[in-house]
Amino acid sequence: MFEVVAESGEARRGELQLNHGKVETPVFMPCGTYGSVKALTPVQIREVGTQVLLGNTFHLMLRPGPDVISDLGGLHGFMDWDGPILTDSGGYQVFSLRDNVALDDKGVTFRSPVNGDRVRLSPEISMHMQKVLKSDIVMVFDECTPYPATHHEAKSSMLRSVGWAATSKSAYDGEGALFGIVQGSVYDDLRVESLAAVVDIGFDGFAIGGLSVGEDIEEMNAVLSALVPQMPSDHPRYLMGVGTPSDLIRGVVQGIDMFDCVMPTRNARNGHLFTWEGVVRIRNAVHKHDSSPIDPNCGCYTCQHFSRAYLHHLDRCREMLACTLMSIHNLHFYHELMTALRKRISENTLSDFASRLLAQFADANRVNSSA
Ligand SMILES: [Zn+2]
C-alpha cells in the first residue's frame, strides 16, 4: 500500500496506493469539512493539484447524517469527487466542544451544535460512519488531549485513546486503510509509549495527533524529533492539522508524509495569500492600483488572469468570487510547495533547499509584519 521511492536525510518520497487512486507523498490534503472545499468546485479542487481530500466525520454525521450519504452511495458520489478521501474520526471536533461533552470509557455524549440533540460518538459509531462515507483512509477514534495538560492528565488521555484505537480496529469492517493515532501531548515518554502501543495493535499508517493545538514551534519540533525517527519507516506518517508552509517544510525534513490544515483555504477567505516571497495581505490599500498578479511566478488560474487590484476590489465588495480565486491560489501554492519538496527529495538536495526556503519565508514575514 505504501512504498518509499526516494530518501533525502530523514525525508522520504513515497507512493500511497488507495482505493480511489495513487497519492504521491509528501502530500498536503485540503479540508472538505462539510463535503465541500469551501468556495471551490471539484474540478477546481483537482486543477489546483489536489490528490486527496479530507472529510469531517463529525460534521457529516450531524448533517446530512449517514442515511442520506449511504443512500447516495458514499461521500465520493455525494460530492462528486472521484479521488481519494481521508476522513477524521470526529474526535478532534467533539472534544473541541468541551463544555457540552460527557466522557466515559466507551465514548462521548454531547449536545449537537446544530440542533441541541444528545448525540453519541464512540469508536464503533465513528467506524460505522467512516464505512458509510466509503473513506479511502479511516482514522481511529481518539481523544485529542487538551493543551496544556499535566503529565498525569496527558497519560490517562493517551491510554484512553490507545484503548479506543484497539476497539476501532476490531470494529472497522470497511475497505479503506485504517490509521492509528499517536497522542501524549508534549511529553516525549508518553508519545513513545503511545507509539509502541498503536504499532503493537497494527495499522496501515500512523498519525501524530494533538499538535498545533497551542504549543509553540519549539515544543512541536521537540515532539517530532523524539517521535518520528521511531515511527515505522515502511508505513505512511501523517501529522494532523498542520500547518503553515514553514511547518510543512520542517515536517517533511523530519520524515512526515502527509499533512492537512484549514489554513490555505481559511486564510484565502481572509485575504491572506501565501507566495514564495512571503505572505501578501490583499486587503492592504497598497494593492488598490497594483496591476501585478499575487505572485508573478505562480501558474494558478488566479495569477494567470487577475491583478492584485481586482482581487483587492472583490474582497472590499465581499464578492464570493474573491474567496474562490484566492482559495485557488493558496491551495495551488501549497501543492506546488509539496511538489518542489518531492523533487528535492528525489534529487537528494532537500536539506539546502529547505533551509533556504525557511530563511526566505522568515525574512519575508519579518518585512511584512513591520511594513
Ligand atoms: Zn497563484
What does this structure look like?
The model has no long low-confidence stretch (mean pLDDT about 95). The protein has helices spanning about 40-45, 55-60, 65-70, 75-80, 90-95, 125-135, 150-170, 190-200, 215-225, 245-255, 265-270, 300-305, 310-315, 320-345, 350-370, and strands spanning about 1-10, 10-20, 20-25, 25-30, 30, 55, 85-90, 100-105, 105-110, 120, 135-140, 175-180, 205-210, 235-240, 260, 270-275, 280. The chain folds into two domains: about 1-260, TIM Barrel (Alpha-Beta Barrel); about 270-370, no CATH class. Strand 9 and strand 10 form a beta hairpin. The protein contains 15 helices and 17 strands. By secondary structure, the chain is α/β, with parallel strands linked by helices. Helix 7 packs parallel to helix 8 (about 190-200), helix 8 packs across helix 9 and helix 10 (about 245-255) runs parallel beside helix 14 (about 320-345). The protein binds zinc ion. Zinc ion binds near residues 295, 298, 300 and 329. Zinc ion (ZN) binds near residues 294, 300, 302 and 329.
